[in-house]
Amino acid sequence: xxxxxxxxxxxxxxxxxxxxxxxxxxxxxxxxxxxxxxxxxxxxxxxxxxxxxxxxxxxxxxxxxxxxxxxxxxxxxxxxxxxxxxxxxxxxxxxxxxxxxxxxxxxxxxxxxxxxxxxxxxxxxxxxxxxxxxxxxxxxxxxxxxxxxxxxxxxxxxxxxxxxxxxxxxxxxxxxxxxxxxxxxxxxxxxxxxxxxxxxxxxxxxxxxxxxxxxxxxxxxxxxxx
Length: 226
What we know:
Helix 4 (127-134) packs parallel to helix 5 (149-160). The protein has helices at residues 3-14, 42-54, 88-97, 127-134, 149-160, 173-185, 190-193, 209-225; strands spanning 19-24, 30-33, 58-61, 67-73, 78-82, 101-105, 121-123, 140-144, 166-169, 196-197. The chain has two domains: 3-73, no CATH class; 78-225, Rossmann fold, CATH 3.40.50.720. The longest helix has 17 residues, at 209-225. Helices cover 39% and strands 20% of the residues.
């Protein structure tokens, strides 16, 4: 890779822009391609979309018969945690170690403090405002943890309107049934509500906040990778 391409790739990574490196296998010619590129052919943009969506490189054949290797460079996955509660602390750390950009949303500044979440992005807006600004995409996981409908419900409504690949909500089966009823009253279909993993996390018998965090991160990973 020449210096100009490398510098552009570094810049795209810093700006958290998804880009793919396309290499023509017959002669080694390389170029970086963004989904927004208007000058590229439709077949190539479609192929770039597929490798970025799967996060896996692939060899594709152009209409002229030339083979190209497409290597995706996606921005980090994101995890939005609504509720700066005890479980959120180990979950934020585990997610960060896994490579996620973590944002903790909670208007209660005594909970959402740098002392409790060192190095994490903290948003103290109300969840509906925070979710609008954060604009969850298909590389975003969202977990609500507060047990408070005033905080969890607006976040879940925003999550279900988004393409987030994972939506989870802490709470018992009884709590989740009540939550589902409220979402139904708010106009969400059964298929929408079925996107919510609730009770959140894999059933591994977790008890402590750290164990529950492990179960949640495991379920997020399972959803992403299978």
